[in-house]
Amino acid sequence: MSTKNLFSKEAKDKIKEMAESIDFTMMATDLKNTPFHTVPMSTKKVDDMGSVWFLSLRDSEHNSHIKTFGDVHLTYSDPSGMEFLTIYGTAEIRTEKVLLEEFYGKTDDNWFDGVNDPNLTAIQVKPQEAHYWEPKSGKFVALLKMGVGAVTGKKPDVSNEGDLKV
Q1: 75: number of CA atoms within 13 Å, CB side?
Q2: Coil, strand, or helix at residue 81?
Q3: pLDDT one-digit tens code per residue, 55-67
Q4: d(C-alpha 166, C-alpha 76), whole Å
Q5: What are phi and psi of 6, to 5 degrees?
Q6: Helix, strand or coil, per DSSP, at residue 140
Q7: ∠ at Cα 102 (89, 64), nearest 5°?
Q8: Within 10 Å of residue 58's Cβ, how many Cβ atoms?
Q9: Contact, 81 vs 143, CB < 8 A?
Q10: The whole model's pTM is what?
């Protein structure tokens, strides 16, 4: 495994690439207590500043925790692609109509009563710390190298991982 830390624009681009392609994350809130509260969330967008955006219900338990504590931990996992991303950051509940309209899609009708739902909010997560893992040369090559490593007993260098400094 090779370490490749990324900074500023490269870090923001990596967060955007991975969070938007993996899409679903487990959002942990109420981090001061154990067990903390965890809920699956669909990523709506990662903006140019590296903030990750979601839609949520105003009266949800995780919104309540965000209002009280603000700290969240996002865990993205794509085992089939061997890609993983973790983000620790601060979250803020946003209600601006322009944001809700930007992020809302037809499939969101499964959870909300339309873009004008008075219970609809957006969550903005501003990363403070992030870390990623991904295959160096794609999943197939990584699996092939791992197979060769199993036969030869030599550990292959199949993945990159590193901190993302936004």
Answers
A1: 7
A2: coil
A3: 999 999 999 999 9
A4: 17
A5: -120, 150
A6: helix
A7: 40
A8: 14
A9: no
A10: 0.86
